[in-house]
């Protein structure tokens, strides 16, 4: 491991212990959110009724959750330990593993978000073609993303495998990119392909999706209908979290080629640290976004919480069941849980069947859907008027 870099000196670390421990708490929240949240996302994605959106998108969400878990292990967890120890405490071998895998996971995460936003837009724009998109095709597209992200660690090994150091600015091991080959050719090429292109795709497809949905809402309003916001805004919110966490870092990396502070100052130290730490948002935010915007996933979480509460209550008893006033308490809890989960699933199944309002499937929102729903709504309204007139004539 190369320790000759200026940034390997502790003087570039966080000197105030209170600030350092605050950052450590920030990363701890991210670690817990990702480990618990992404595990629940993976479990929910295996259930037929937990994500009531197109299966093609569910497969992409699975791969994003795997990417976030990998980022937690290779980025958040090592940073947390280094912040607490105020140094790298995991040994040289893990330092190399961290430096090589971090770029791969970061690039894979960016590209998967781009695949998600692009797929959502194409499903809205070309619904008939999207019907034939299978789970296998989604896995193939995501696998291509994972394979392409291997290019960076392969280049690291080929150019200078030992160009690794511990950077006190971000409290993690980094690949330095100090070779002339990187500076003259590889950084501009890889930076454009893996940094600029995914961000352009994410921003562009998100804007197009929002424009398409805005047009759909205007059409629904003209026919006295409505478009459910839950589920519709899942992808735009995922994109927003991605942009907030990633774009500042990408902009800083591009600007750093033209701004050279000697000695390192605010731009190279504080801004770089903050923008690097902001990347945690993209890793930890997806669970909260899905829970907020997808009702079926929220019902799944609710049922899991009820199951956990029941397990804790049963574990706290000496016997498997305790009778109180002639009632079997565990069975009562279980029945309550099953009833609540069943009612939640029934509510999800009946979502969209609201009399007197046009509601649409958020995963396949098209103009054709709106027109069909509007026609059905008008027919119901006309039938209701006819019934009223017949009743009046009978009277």
What does this protein structure show overall?
A hairpin with a 4-residue loop joins strand 1 and strand 2 (172-175). The model is unreliable at 322-326, 329-337, 350-376 and 387-395 (pLDDT under 50). The chain is 72% helix and 3% strand. Strands 1-2 form a two-stranded antiparallel sheet. The protein has a two-stranded antiparallel sheet with strand order 3-4. The chain is globular and about 65 Å long. It has 14 helices and 4 strands. By secondary structure, it is mostly helical.
Number of separate strands? 4
Average pLDDT figure: 79
- Work out the radius of gyration: 26 Å
What would you call the shape?
globular
Query: Which class do the helix and strand fractions yield?
Result: mainly alpha
Low-confidence stretches: 322-326, 329-337, 350-376, 387-395
- Write the H/E string, N to C: HHHHHHEEHHHHHHEEHH
The strands making up the biggest β-sheet line up spatially as 1-2
Largest sheet: number of strands, sense, barrel closure? 2 strands, antiparallel
How many helix segments?
14
Strand content: under 5%
Distance between the termini: 93 Å
Helicity range: over 70%
């Amino acid at each position: 491991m190369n320790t000759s870099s200026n940034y390997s000196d502790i003087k570039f670390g966080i000197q105030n212990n209170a600030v350092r421990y605050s950052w450590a708490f920030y990363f701890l929240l991210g670690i817990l959110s990702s480990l618990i949240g992404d595990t629940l996302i993976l479990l929910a994605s295996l259930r037929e009724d937990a994500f009531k959106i197109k299966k093609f998108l569910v497969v992409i969400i699975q791969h994003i959750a795997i990417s976030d878990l990998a980022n937690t292990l290779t980025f958040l967890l090592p940073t947390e330990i280094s912040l607490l120890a105020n140094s790298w405490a995991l040994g040289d071998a893990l330092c190399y593993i961290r430096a090589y895998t971090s770029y791969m996971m970061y690039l894979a995460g960016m590209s998967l978000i781009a695949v998600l936003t692009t797929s959502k837009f194409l499903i809205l724009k070309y619904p008939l073609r999207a019907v034939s998109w299978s789970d296998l095709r989604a896995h193939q597209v995501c696998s291509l993303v994972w394979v392409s992200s291997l290019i960076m660690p392969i280049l690291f090994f080929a150019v200078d495998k030992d160009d690794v150091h511990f950077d006190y600015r971000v409290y993690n091991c980094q690949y330095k990119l100090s070779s002339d080959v990187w500076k003259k050719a590889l950084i501009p090429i890889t930076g454009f392909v893996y940094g600029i292109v995914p961000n352009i795709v994410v921003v562009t497809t998100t804007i197009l999706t929002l424009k398409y949905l805005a047009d759909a809402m205007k059409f629904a309003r003209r026919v006295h209908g409505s478009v459910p916001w839950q589920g519709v805004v899942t992808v735009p919110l995922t994109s927003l979290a991605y942009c907030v966490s990633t774009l500042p870092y990408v902009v800083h990396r591009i600007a750093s080629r033209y701004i050279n502070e000697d000695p390192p100052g605010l731009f190279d130290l504080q801004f770089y640290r903050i923008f690097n730490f902001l990347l945690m948002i993209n890793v930890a935010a997806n669970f909260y976004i899905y829970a907020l915007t997808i009702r079926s996933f929220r019902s799944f979480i609710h049922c899991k919480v009820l199951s956990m509460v029941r397990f804790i209550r049963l574990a706290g008893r000496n016997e498997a069941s305790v009778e109180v006033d002639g009632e079997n308490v565990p069975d009562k809890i279980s029945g309550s849980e099953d009833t609540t989960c069943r009612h939640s699933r029934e509510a999800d199944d009946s979502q969209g069947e609201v009399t007197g309002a046009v509601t649409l499937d958020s995963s396949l929102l098209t103009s054709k859907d709106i027109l069909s729903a509007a026609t059905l709504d008008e027919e119901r309204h006309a039938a209701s008027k006819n019934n009223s007139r017949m009743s009046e004539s009978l009277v």
